Amino acid sequence: MNILIPDSWLREFLKTSATLKQIKEFVSLCGPSIERIHEVDGEAVYDVEVTTNRPDSMSVAGVAREASVILPRFGIPAKLVNDPYERALQGDPLQGREKSSRKRKLSIKTDPNLNPRWTSVVLENVSVKPSPKWLADKLEKSGIRALNNIVDITNYLMRAYGQPAHAFDFDAIAHGKNSATMILRASKKGEKLTTLDGKTHTLPGGDIVITDEKGRLIDLCGIMGAKNSSITTETKTIVLFLQTYDPIHIRKTSMALAHRTEAAGLFEKGIDPELVMPAFLEGVRLVGELATTPEGGRNHAMNGVAYRAGRFVGGGLLERSHVEAELRAAAQACGLGEAEIEKVLRVGGPLDVGAANPVEPPPSIAERYERIKFPDAGAAGGNGRSSGAHATGETETESGPEPGQRPGAAPFPLIAVRDISEIITQKWLVHGLIPRFDEGACGYYFAPAKARKSLFLADLALSVATGTPALGRYDVEKPGAVVGFYAEDPKGETSRRVHRLARGRGIEVPGNLYLLDLPALAIDNPEHQSRLLATLLAVPDLALVFLDPMIRLHHANDNKAEELGPIHTFLRTMSRSCAGVVFMLAHHTNKAGDSRGSTEYGAFGDFNLYAAKDADETRVHTVENRGGPAGKPFRYRVEDGTTCAGLPTMRLVASDLNEGEDKAEQDDRGRAAVSEYRTAHPGEPGRVAMRELRKRGLKVASADFWKWWNPPKEGA
């Protein structure tokens, strides 16, 4: 996950004299990777990649915390300032105000298994207006569009501290003039809501949602708020809401809906529940400074449903003295002094929760999986007890299920392995080239630009639609209808290719070879996903679907697996829905011959073809098949001609990659290639060189490679 951090914002949390270059170099060596430094409106902005196992570093304060520890190890003084955990102890902006005028009443119903911690406050007499320049500049330089002061405050909290926040319009969810109810539960299958970006989602069921008293969905929890409770210029009272969720539910919903947000990326990785209160108090302070009207109070009633599960000390699983001793030993091994050690032991909250805040032991593996079943919304609902929470009489929190109790849910279906038909003989769409599975198959054709990918797919489509050999040599075992989409080629150009290929075979263009007739296709767009699946299910005897090129079919970042994951999930779901159909996608390669972008591309396919281009031919040097042995490499070339009537024809002709060479010629060519590569890349490990040469199409046995890579010295 990448985040943008302006240098001035980082230094609000990091006191250091380190230069931009030093911060980039040394922090990248030991912590988050600062990939590059941009200049935005005259200020340096760090582009920081944070690994998925470190959600605590996915914020300005988190990166500053890492830098404050790393820089001193390289002789550069650095200190963490404005630590959110310490600031939370310096004063509560709500203190002394809980018993102010009580006009608004907010009732809370939640489920502690889905929502371990809930913290909310009703803030009255707010004024929604543009944010001050300092706040808007921070967000804009961080890649977040400034909208208004309330929304910008919630985005500020997420980027500054790594704690997502949300604000509801109280009057939009109220069921009376001064009363509102928020009910957190698991969704029912088929429920719909429209999120803030205007997209309408049909929920698969079991998603964490919040409804109002009338049953309207007002929040797709952990991902995005609903449009019907959004902040507008008419908003006068808000509910500021910070919380934690069960990470598995958030991940599952985000992937199923192909709806990725920064908030979802944080919640699904599991954020520190102790961070909720510092961020919450800072949010209340900012609303008071930036959004309240002069005559109005700034707060009303606060509710905090304390987190309950997963604390070892206090749950009777480990002795406090044992945990503290282990942490102290680790800190001493890192060279920390006594004062620093005490600070380490305090970060993240006290080790024990105490009798006033009872906990339940962490769930067993079996219980954990039981918890992620998708409950009926009718059986869900209820909420956790407010244990040790800061709450007022104005906020009602109803009791929910006792520990161990969970809402009823329909179990997933199971099938015994012995009842599943074993694959004895590999099925093929195109024998030796494209495998076929009863549950559907997906794969990629990877090749550089201008490597005749589109022509290859046209030849393949014509072969499957007519049952004639592909590339003049590969038999089609399962002929059928074909549906394709070329994102870059006009339909007339595609028709020209297919007609010439058909004339080259002496056949007519069949009626079961189709193109999607639309200007653009976005397979990360929920509406396009639904329409595409409906289209394919309506095609009789469908055998092949091809899409070219992948880069033009989505708006995700090719380098981020977390953004490609939902797209591949949709493709896999679509292939499972179209039993026996093969989905083939074209994608570019990088200079090294690998798939361009994330490794998610190469890891996804049931089969993959990797190609390289020469002046007058294309070399398919790797043929992968997850369900069986790899195919043989081959090359193909284009042969143009004319019919007796003078009409142009075209044929793609394939041959073995090293056809026509005897063993001696192959050895000479291999020896020369290895020697040339070693000269051009001195010091490179042999295993790297062998992999690279094979990607380039050199067919060489490992024994021969090492013989040529390390030739015997003269006289030896």
- In total, the number of domains comes to 5
- The whole-angstrom Rg is 31 Å
CATH class designation of the largest domain: Alpha Beta
In the CATH hierarchy, what is the superfamily of the largest domain? Answer: Phenylalanyl-trna Synthetase, Chain B, domain 3
Class by SSE composition: alpha/beta
Number of strands: 28
CATH topology of the largest domain: Phenylalanyl-tRNA Synthetase, Chain B, domain 3
**Which stretches are low in confidence, meaning pLDDT under 50 for 5 or more residues running?**
294-318, 347-406
Q: Tell me about the largest β-sheet.
A: 9 strands, mixed
For the record, give the distance between the C-alpha atoms at the N and C termini, rounded to a whole number.
54 Å
Global mean pLDDT = 80
User: How is the quaternary structure best described?
Assistant: single chain
Q: What is the topology?
A:
Layout: E1 2-6, H1 7-10, E2 14-16, H2 20-30, E3 33-40, E4 43-49, H3 60-70, E5 78-80, H4 84-87, E6 105-109, E7 117-123, H5 133-141, H6 149-161, E8 165-169, H7 170-173, E9 179-186, E10 192-194, E11 200-202, E12 208-211, E13 217-220, E14 224-225, E15 238-244, H8 247-256, H9 262-267, H10 276-290, E16 302-305, H11 320-333, H12 338-346, H13 365-371, E17 395-397, E18 427-430, E19 434-436, E20 441-447, H14 453-466, E21 481-486, H15 491-505, E22 513-515, H16 526-537, E23 542-548, H17 561-577, E24 582-588, H18 600-604, E25 607-613, E26 618-625, E27 634-642, E28 648-656, H19 663-680, H20 686-695, H21 702-709
Parallel strand pairs: 6-9, 6-17, 20-24, 20-25, 21-22, 21-23, 23-24
Antiparallel strand pairs: 1-4, 2-5, 3-4, 7-15, 7-16, 8-15, 9-12, 10-11, 12-13, 13-14, 18-19, 25-26, 26-27, 27-28
